[in-house]
Structures are given as structure tokens and as C-alpha cells.
Amino acid sequence: MQVSLFRALKSANISDDAAEKVVHAFEEHIDMAVAEAMKHYDDRITAMQSILEAKIDAGFKNIEGRFTGIEGRFTGIEGRMTGMQTSIDVLKWLFITQATLLLIAGTVAGYVKLIT
Fold first, then answer.
1. Residues in contact with 9: Cβ distance below 8 Å, sequence separation at least 6, in sequence order
2. How buried is residue 14: exposed, middle or buried, by Cβ count under 10 Å (0-12/13-18/19+)?
């Protein structure tokens, strides 16, 4: 574009120095206009990025909360399992005690029968 503008100015009998200054000023104007137009989009992108980061952070905090709830449930289940294990241990010892008492009672009854 600069070359065609420069040629157009030259064909209008404008000096090389003046044509070069016009082309340079025109380039600066285009650069400023593009930068100004891009600033609006850059601001929008930055705002969208902030919104997305906030939503992602909120989502992760929600997930962390759910994991904390699940962890609490597992802790409760673990406590109940420990209680069941204790009950099973008590029943096991009760069964062993009863079996031992039956064995002793049978032995005593057999000994008494043998003596009498």
C-alpha cells in the first residue's frame, strides 16, 4: 500500500520528501487506528478471562466441597465398620467362652458319671 500511495503522490507532482512524509504519517495513523480498535477487543478478552477464571475457581471449590462431603461419609462408614468389628470380636469371644464352658461341663459330667 505504501508503494502505491507513494507512486500516486509522485504522479500528482509531489516531491519525494513530501510524499515520503505523507506515507509515513499515513502509516502512523493506520497503526494508531488499529491499536485503538484492538484495545477494545483486548479489554473484552481480559474481562472474559477474569470471568472464566472466577468460574473455574468456583467450580474447583465446589468440587473440593463435594470431596470433603464424600470424605466425611467414608469416615462415618469407617466408624461404623469399626463398631461392627468390635461387635464381631465380642461375639467371637462369647462363642469361645460358651464352647469352653460346654466342654468343661461335659468333662465334669463325664467324670461325675465315671465316679458314680
1. 18, 19, 22, 23
2. middle
Q: How far apart are CA 106 and CA 96, in angstroms?
A: 15
Number of structural domains in the chain: 1
In a domain, 55, yes or no: yes
Contacting residues for 22 by C-beta, under 8 A, at least 6 apart: 5, 9, 14
Residue linked to cell 470424605? 71
Query: Within a domain: residue 41?
Result: yes
> For residue 32, what is its C-alpha cell?
494508531
Q: Out of 2-11, 76-85, 90-99, 101-110, which region has the weakest mean confidence (pLDDT)?
A: 2-11
Tell me which residue range forms the domain holding 40. Answer: 2-84
Q: Give 100 or 14, the one with higher predicted confidence.
A: 100
